[in-house]
Design goal:
The complex is a heterodimer of chains A (336) and B (303). Chain A has 336 residues and is an all-alpha fold. Helices cover 77% and strands 0% of the residues of chain A. Chain A has two domains: 60 residues, no CATH class; 241 residues, MetI-like (MetI-like fold, Orthogonal Bundle). At the A-B interface, helix 1, helix 6, helix 7, helix 11 and helix 12 of A face helix 6, helix 7, helix 11 and helix 13 of B.
């Protein structure tokens, strides 16, 4: 098992180097002169420009610059933001909990509804229920989520007035972040109504972010279940006279969930891409909005660092999913 | 001898299987959703082509006397505008009809770009193998390591906002899927007897790759192309919504949504209709794609 894990980890190294080269190259390809931007000085003289160029290390060969950058990355130094002057990594850690909280809520909703819906559709194959569930899933899968978010705002914030339009918590409440998770922090603060406020801010963005993963998980669960339900051991279990609930819930679902786990893991990329749109619509202060804002501010070090971190997260999660897959399915582990 | 064989030959001719197209349509039309999806898609294509005839007004013409008029069935509507007007008095229906042109154009261009480059790279990787294969696939891994929308967003920021650059960026992030599919298909076909036969018969490399092997890998590629078509439309609309795709006053649906955002609580129609069009288009294409997969994928085809 350990060698399986290590082999997979080794395979990630070339990809990670590629990712770092890409994000390093981007900063040099973006229009505008990073030195002018970083210095933020008007009427710069030619000598001053060269001095700054030297100070930032832009006068050295690209390969040297890249290796220097990579060395910094390995030590956790991703440079600092041009706008806020704070280290990129520090900014990331301040904002990441917001995205993590949102993503965890979204994936919980997606799994909690998607898996049972998929199982139900598979068991009642061909029925009206199956068609309704799969039809809804296809609509969810085709949904432009930025529009979906706006619709929910019109309905729940505009017409019904149930939920706030943006942010993570009402301005009435303030408490220092402990875990960075607003739901937990608001409880810890002990302020009346804080938790309610945090929850009401979280509901709509979570639904929006959950939509596509939910649809994908429901579809995947259904097809995995259908495959498993036609296998001999399921027929044997039925022939033994086991109640249908037990056959479906215990025998079939267990094996059907193996590919579903992979699908859930692959949703991390979908969630992070979805966070870009969801966080923009709901002014959610997470890394999706951070990246969009940085692109518009031309905050190169943040874009560069953010790309690298996000790609790193996705690669690591995919690795974990692979390993988990190997754990639950020994055939995979030994085949490779 | 020959007399004995001829009747058999005649019988075989009578029993010749239906043409490929007819067989395909047989399986495809079994899926009711797919037929509905295809119908809607064809209607959209027709609307896009006939936009100047169908649209009551110019998509950019501004009626200064009719700002933010609601759709016709609501109170305060202006009877000239069926679906109302936006904040600068442009007819929403006309903009939606012209918008179909952009979305279908985006989908077509992106899929062609991604398909052609992806298939060539996949063929090369799968056919030659070795370091070329490793190199190409590593680059694809790198592209796939980023969330596609984020990568497209940054690429557009580099290339400069605009529809053309958005299409290039989206094609680039969609292309790895085509490379992987083609490569996998080529690798499984490469060792087959018919390929060896063609090689022995003296077929050159290019002929082997494009004429002998490629047609046998087409089914999954067509399905992937359909899926990419809808993804392209969604991503382009998302980029337009973020202000990085088509620029105003282009009647692109995502861009229309971005312009409408500030009126969201005052004028629901400026937000609702463009998004609805995106949803309907993408849904129609995905329905068609599901039908195509059932009809084309031999593994899923009922025996």
């Amino acid at each position: 098992m350990l060698s399986f894990f290590l082999r997979r980890l080794l395979l990630l190294i070339p990809t990670f180097i590629g990712v770092s080269i890409v994000s390093f190259a981007f900063i040099r390809l973006l229009p505008g002169d990073p030195i002018m931007l970083m210095a933020g000085e008007r009427g710069m003289s030619a000598e001053r420009y060269l001095e700054l160029q030297h100070q930032f290390g832009y006068d050295r060969p690209l390969v040297v610059q890249y290796l220097d950058y990579l060395w910094g990355v390995l030590q956790g130094d991703l440079g600092q933001s041009i706008v806020t002057k704070r280290p990129v990594l520090q900014e990331f850690f301040t904002l990441f909990p917001a995205t993590l909280e949102l993503s965890l809520c979204a994936i919980t909703i997606a799994v909690a509804i998607g898996v049972p819906a998929g199982v139900l559709a598979a068991v009642k194959r061909g029925s009206f229920l199956d068609q309704a569930i799969m039809g809804t899933a296809l609509v969810g899968y085709s949904m432009p989520i930025f529009w979906w978010g706006l619709l929910l705002i019109i309905l729940f914030s505009g017409v019904l007035g149930w939920t706030p339009v943006s942010g993570r918590i009402s301005l009435m409440f303030f408490f220092p972040p402990v875990t960075g998770f607003m739901l937990i922090d608001s409880l810890l603060s002990g302020q009346a109504g804080a938790f309610r406020s945090a929850l009401s801010h979280l509901v709509l963005p979570s639904i929006v972010l959950a939509t596509i993963p939910l649809a994908v998980i429901a579809r995947q669960t259904r097809s995995a279940m259908l495959e498993v339900l036609s296998e001999d051991y399921v027929r044997t279990a039925r022939a033994k006279g086991l109640p249908s609930r037990r056959v479906v819930g215990l025998h079939a679902l267990r094996n059907a969930l193996i590919p579903v786990i992979t699908t859930i893991g692959l949703q991390v990329g979908v969630l992070l891409a979805g966070a870009i749109l969801t966080e923009t619509i709901f002014s959610w202060p997470g890394i999706g909005k951070w990246m969009v804002d940085s692109v518009f501010r031309r905050d190169y070090p943040v874009i560069q660092g953010g790309l690298l971190i996000i790609a790193g997260i996705i690669m690591l999660v995919n690795l974990l999913v692979d390993v988990l897959y190997g754990l639950v399915n020994p055939r995979i582990r030994h085949a490779r | 001898m020959s007399e004995a064989i001829e009747p058999v030959g005649d019988k075989a001719r009578l029993d010749t299987p239906p043409s490929v197209l007819r067989e395909f349509w047989h399986y495809f039309s079994e899926n009711r959703g797919a037929v509905i999806g295809l119908t809607i898609f064809l209607l959209l294509v027709a609307a896009a082509i006939a936009a100047p005839l169908l649209a009551p007004y110019s998509p950019t013409g501004q009626f200064r006397d009719a700002l933010l008029k609601p759709p016709i069935w609501q109170e305060g509507a202006d009877p000239r505008f069926l679906l109302g007007t936006d904040a600068v008095g442009r007819d929403i229906l006309s903009r939606l009809i012209y918008g179909a042109r952009f979305s279908l154009f985006i989908g077509t261009v992106v899929v062609i770009l991604a398909l052609v480059t992806g298939v060539i790279l996949g063929l090369v990787a799968g056919y030659f193998g070795g370091w070329l294969d490793t190199g190409i696939m590593r680059v694809m891994d790198v592209i796939l390591a980023f969330p596609s929308l984020l990568l497209a967003l940054v690429l557009v920021a580099i290339l400069g906002p605009g529809l053309m650059n958005a299409m290039i960026a989206i094609a680039l992030v969609l292309q790895p899927h085509f490379v992987r599919l083609t490569r996998a298909a080529v690798m499984s076909e490469r060792g087959r007897d018919y390929v060896t036969a063609a090689r022995v018969a003296g077929a050159g490399r290019l002929r082997l790759m494009f004429v002998t092997i490629l047609p046998n890998c087409l089914a999954p590629l067509i399905v992937q192309a359909t899926l990419s078509f809808s993804t392209a439309i969604l991503d382009a609309a998302a980029l337009g919504f973020l202000g990085m795709g088509a620029q105003p006053p282009t009647p692109e649906w995502g861009t229309m949504l971005a312009e409408a955002r500030e009126f969201i609580l005052r004028a629901w129609w400026v937000v609702t209709f463009p998004g609805l069009m995106i949803l309907i288009t993408v849904l129609a294409i995905n329905l068609t794609g599901d039908g195509l997969r059932d009809a084309l994928d031999p593994k899923l085809k009922r025996s």
